[in-house]
Design a protein that fits this description.
Helix content: 40-55%
Strand order of the largest sheet: 7-6-5-8-9-12-11
Largest sheet: 7 strands, mixed
Structural class: alpha/beta
CATH superfamily of the largest domain: Vaccinia Virus protein VP39
CATH architecture of the largest domain: 3-Layer(aba) Sandwich
Radius of gyration: 22 Å
Strand content: 5-15%
Number of strands: 12
Length: 429
């Protein structure tokens, strides 16, 4: 989908409120770093064929007319922000309306392809000029985790309902595949694709009549509803008060309140014994220091012979190691305290800290790209309703960038999504 570039023009926006958006409202002044950022963008434009448009129609570097476009409305502010804080500044500059693109996903897909090559090898030391570390207040300790979850998932149930399908599933769907195994995705098919994803995960965990199921990360209750409809008894854990209230209401409306208990509870405090543990895109919020505790909890509550089925966003192991501990725009504004794991990291953690082993993993990253495309289209199409809920233009641009950036990550293969089965291997004598 093409982002509505005219609607995003800087003149359409009031200044960012410094009380709510202090680092978007403030334009830094770092002349030397800004000069370096300008030189790097020139190199990217030449090497990647990005068409960088300056005011009054000028180009930063010659580029094909068909190349992805980065339109700089306020180049000076853009270069100072990027010079000061790298990709954080890149995102904040977009929030401030200082740049846009007629096709945001195409631009970000180009930039997300082999991102380690954007900065020349001999200039990698420049990262030290702007790379920040995660603030201690956002590390997902038991004390901080609820605040981190609150900042994203408690924004507004009404906001999420504007762009999610009626199942309120906020994770990758699994679409039918057509010729060449490309996902066949449409808004009309999204709810069925979400059920297909949930059912495959429940099948992986062998959830059926009488199963005792622990769900780590309730969302808005759709997985718990489908597990209970199979005859399972479900305990579901969440740290989001907004999700807790709506999930309980949806479960009651489905007539399944006697089979599902939703608790406001940190995963580390889980109690009981379960035949199956399921968790959909929750590990990304755990944070790397706490992956051992997360998997040890699953191991502790899983009954003998039980199975754990997870859906997890993953990235290549070396990229995970390189980015671990780095404070990014996504962490600052979208998912504080998070870390996307690699499949290798999941294997290493379970091997070292638990008796669980990865038995099955199925990836379907292209399906997430399509899921995100549908969400992004709905979000931009409902811009007026988002504004009516009290979310200003800076917030809306932030979410447009987040959804487009994520879609680009899956389109390039920089990100993937997996359904993973964990079991305890039988001991042989």
């Amino acid at each position: 989908m093409t982002v509505h570039a005219e609607a995003l023009a800087p003149s359409a926006f009031a200044s960012a409120d410094p009380r709510h958006w202090p680092d978007v409202a403030r334009v830094p002044r770092v002349p030397l770093k800004a000069a370096v950022a300008r030189r790097l963008l020139r190199r990217i434009a030449r090497r990647r064929g990005v068409r960088v448009q300056l005011p009054h129609g000028r180009l930063l570097e010659p580029a094909p007319a068909t190349a992805p476009v980065l339109r700089l409305h306020r180049p000076d502010a853009f270069f100072h922000r990027v010079g000061e804080s790298g990709l954080i500044g890149f995102g904040e500059s977009y929030q401030a309306g200082e740049w846009d693109s007629p096709d945001l996903v195409a631009l970000l897909t180009e930039l997300a392809t082999a991102p380690e090559t954007l900065v020349p090898t001999g200039a990698q030391w420049l990262r030290r000029l702007y790379v920040q570390r995660t603030p201690a207040t956002e590390v997902s300790t038991p004390d901080n985790a609820r605040t981190n979850i609150h900042r994203h998932y408690d924004l507004s149930n009404e906001l999420f309902a504007l762009f999610l399908d009626p199942t309120l599933s906020y994770s990758s769907a699994l679409f039918p595949t057509g010729p060449g195994e490309a996902p066949v995705a449409s808004w009309e098919s999204l709810a069925a694709a979400q059920h297909r994803k949930i059912d495959r995960l429940l099948d992986l965990a062998r959830v059926g009549v009488g199963s005792r199921v622990l769900e780590i990360g309730t969302g808005w209750g759709e997985l718990a509803i489908r597990a209970a409809a199979r005859g399972a008894r479900v305990v579901s854990l969440t740290l989001s008060e907004e999700q807790l209230a709506l999930a309980r209401r949806r479960i009651a409306d489905a007539g399944l309140a006697d089979r599902v208990e939703v608790r406001l509870c940190d995963y580390r405090a889980a109690e009981g014994e379960f035949d199956a543990v399921v968790s959909v895109e929750m590990i990304e919020a755990v944070g790397r220091p706490f992956w051992p505790a997360y998997f040890a909890t699953i191991d502790r509550v899983l009954a003998p012979g039980g199975r754990a089925a997870l859906q997890a966003i993953t990235m290549p192991h070396q990229r995970m190691l390189a980015s671990s501990g780095t404070y990014t725009w996504i962490l600052k504004y979208i998912f504080p305290g998070g870390q996307i794991p690699s499949l290798e990291a999941i294997r290493q953690t379970t091997d070292r800290y638990t008796g669980l082993r990865v038995a099955v993993c199925d990836s379907f990253g292209p399906h997430y790209a399509e899921t995100l495309r549908l969400w992004r289209e709905r979000f931009t199409d409902h811009a007026d309703e988002v504004g009516a809920l009290g979310f200003d233009q800076v917030f809306q641009r932030m979410w447009e960038l987040y959804l487009a950036y994520s879609e680009a990550g899956f389109r390039t293969g920089y990100l993937d999504v997996q359904q993973i089965l964990l079991t305890r291997p039988e001991r042989t004598r």
